[in-house]
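Methods — Computational structure assignment.
A single polypeptide chain was analysed. Its primary sequence is given first, followed by the predicted tertiary structure written as structure tokens.
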Amino acid sequence: MTNIAVTTWSLEQTAPTDLLPAAAPEGDVRIVRAEVPSPEFSRFLYASVGGDIRWTDRLGWSHARWREHLERPGVETWVAYDRGTPAGYVELTPGDDGVVEIEYFGLIPAFRGRRIGGHLLSYGAARAWDLAERWPGLATTKRVWLHTCSKDGAYAMDNYQRRGFRLFDTKVEEEADVATPGPWPGAFPS
């Protein structure tokens, strides 16, 4: 197996006023919180969004591991729907002392390039900033952060920066060059 160099960039907002919202796309695009923890639905979103960009870290999670993660207080999944069809999602995960990570964010390939991503990221970041309002006991959000890498889409970094996220760390590491898993085996050519 060969290795590839992967650059990971970490970005942050340190105040709600850092958020620079994108305009809503035209058409019937809605963003709805998936309030019932559903390992099946979350795994579908994860595999469908990340299948062509080598998201593999959660593919081996058991149903119980998915449930455990999704039932943690403050973990939220916000789903963008285009005319009733899931188009992408943003997953928020609270940390300590008011830090919220946008742990996963992206669009299913068929919905990319339609101005949905900027809108979904804006909405997700805003929900990260008001997370404690929905979860009594969580600290008020003081910082929202995320990471992206050189395996992500070509427009990811630009989208994050246009939404007001600022770079605070860069790392380059060697990773195994794994085959693109697709949303199900064989969905994408290797």
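Note: Residues 90 and 105 are 4 Å apart (CA to CA).
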